[in-house]
Backbone:
């Protein structure tokens, strides 16, 4: 299976060892001159480059695993699958809802909009520039999301987007057809993952999250796996070692599934 690395957190290029994965392809977007400070323009460039890397892998029958520094990059993977002729649903593992809009966000942090952008919010800024067809809300399922703002609670109460727990993840609790499985590593209890930008305690274990992903992979319907690593630079060898073990386990999921 092909592992793709997009070493960006929003418009910030990450250090080479920030996401310790042995990638087959590292995305180097061709960003226009003067793009510094243009977050949306940089996002479009990075997501477009991810789509360029993903599409041929999927067309050849592969299941890519895409690592990046935040959840906003998942749109590039979905766009790549769409270019390859698939119409995927999304299973979104995250400690947070990521269903804000620019109007409801109180922090202004764009990662808090990631799933909502994928399902059609602000298409002129996100979906349209990368050639993404927004995923219908009913074709998205949010897993865990234990840390929700009031606006997110209100949106989910009336939205067709599903909301389930990690223990409930199964073939019949997610949408039909091909799937993009997205894992923000902060879905795992913050006690197991050091240095997260937005830690949330009281969550599932890494083993529980990996087990849920394995159940989905066992269906044969997973077309791509995306992993977001929104953490600060590692503080010391111990922290780096914990992250390396986690990333290695996540990178191995699709490979293990393919050999079963």
Residues:
């Amino acid at each position: 299976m092909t592992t793709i690395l997009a070493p960006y957190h929003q418009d910030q290029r990450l250090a080479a060892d920030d996401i310790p994965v042995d990638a087959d392809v590292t995305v180097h977007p061709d960003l226009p001159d003067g793009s510094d400070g243009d977050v949306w323009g940089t996002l479009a460039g990075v997501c477009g480059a991810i789509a360029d890397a993903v599409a041929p892998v999927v067309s050849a029958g592969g299941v890519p695993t895409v690592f990046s520094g935040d959840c906003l990059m998942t749109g590039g993977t979905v766009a790549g699958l769409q270019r390859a002729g698939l119409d995927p649903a999304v299973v979104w593992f995250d400690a947070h809802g990521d269903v804000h809009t620019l109007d409801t966000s109180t922090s202004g942090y764009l990662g808090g909009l990631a799933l909502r952008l994928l399902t059609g919010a602000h298409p002129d800024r996100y979906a349209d520039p990368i050639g993404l067809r927004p995923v219908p809300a009913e074709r998205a399922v949010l897993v865990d999301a234990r840390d929700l703002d009031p606006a997110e609670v209100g949106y989910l109460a009336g939205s067709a987007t599903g909301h389930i727990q990690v223990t409930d993840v199964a073939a019949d609790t997610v949408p039909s057809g091909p799937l993009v499985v997205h894992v923000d590593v902060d879905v795992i209890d913050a006690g197991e993952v050091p240095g997260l930008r937005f830690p949330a305690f009281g969550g599932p274990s890494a083993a529980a999250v990996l087990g849920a992903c394995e159940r989905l992979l066992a269906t044969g319907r997973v077309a791509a796996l995306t992993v977001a690593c929104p953490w600060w630079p590692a503080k010391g060898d111990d922290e780096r070692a914990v992250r390396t073990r986690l990333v290695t386990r996540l990178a191995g999921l699709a490979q293990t599934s393919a050999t079963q």
In short: The chain has one domain: 3-259.
